[in-house]
């Protein structure tokens, strides 16, 4: 993003080049950042883009800050209720892992937003904080989305073999789930490690105000950003979750009646796809340069703001689904909040 900070400390960006123009040459998108000026720095040249940025960005900042706080509260209730009831199967651990990663992701986003809104980090300092925030932001989102994929895959197996009768050492066993999540986390942490190389301390007013940190915009980073969006963080896990969830729904509709836990987990997986798919689609299209054509940049900008706001609403989906459709979760949460003794029961 290129622009300045206005008197309120809120970014007044004139055009965005952080994601657009990253596409490979066979898509007709240029890797030269200088060539990507679909919305020029002069507001008069692109008044629609300028006013969209000016009017929506402060609201986006406030939404991100509120999301960070509300996500921590909602996911903390989920973790406490699951732990109070007791983790016996891997699906319970997946719920805890999703809640923790979603909370950390929203917290990193809120911290980045707050630092940008307050003027950013001091120049030529804060490299460690920059690396930690951006690395944690993308890593936690990757962990959350791939955990949902793992849960959806187990749901498909659960329709043939219910959770309540796991084989020792199988995927439905808690120990097997912990081992699988550990291996998944290590792989994602290694895949996201280039963020530690490409992100550094701000070296100018634009870096400090607009992106908080300096990002080495070499060709290697541009291709890594596409890989990160398409395969690591958004598009691939969301698409796999959609396919697995659709298969589970078909099996559930054709099969015999299942317990509450299976139905609730299927709803949680579907809700994750519903809230993440639009943002993943728009982000991928922007990175591939599909909105760089004349007349399409403003459309991409509006879609970005709309889908990012929609994805923020997903912080409530798991807690709402569990409270509405899972009686055992409601009892566990009520007993936790009223300081009743812990009771362990079979999930139904």
- Distance separating the two termini: 50 Å
Integer tally of domains: 1
| DSSP helix fraction | 55-70%
Class, according to the CATH hierarchy?
Answer: Mainly Alpha
| Radius of gyration, in angstroms, nearest whole number | 22 Å
Could you tell me the CATH topology label: Rhopdopsin 7-helix transmembrane proteins
Arrangement of strands in the largest sheet: 1-2
Structural class: mainly alpha
Count of beta strands: 4
The ordered H/E elements are EEHHHHHEHEHHHHHH
Subcellular location: Membrane
Pfam families: 7tm_1
Keywords: Membrane, Transmembrane, Transmembrane helix
Organism: Macrostomum lignano
Question: What does it look like?
Answer:
With 348 residues, the chain is mainly alpha-helical. The protein has one domain: Rhodopsin 7-helix transmembrane proteins (Rhopdopsin 7-helix transmembrane proteins), CATH 1.20.1070.10. It is 66% helix and 4% strand. It contains twelve helices and four strands. The protein has a two-stranded antiparallel ribbon. Strands 3-4 form a two-stranded antiparallel sheet. Helix 3 packs parallel to helix 8 and helix 9 runs antiparallel to helix 11. The radius of gyration is 22 Å and the shape is globular. The N and C termini lie far apart (50 Å). The N terminus is likely disordered. This is G-protein coupled receptors family 1 profile domain-containing protein. One of its GO terms (molecular function) is G protein-coupled receptor activity. Its main location: membrane. It is found in: Membrane.
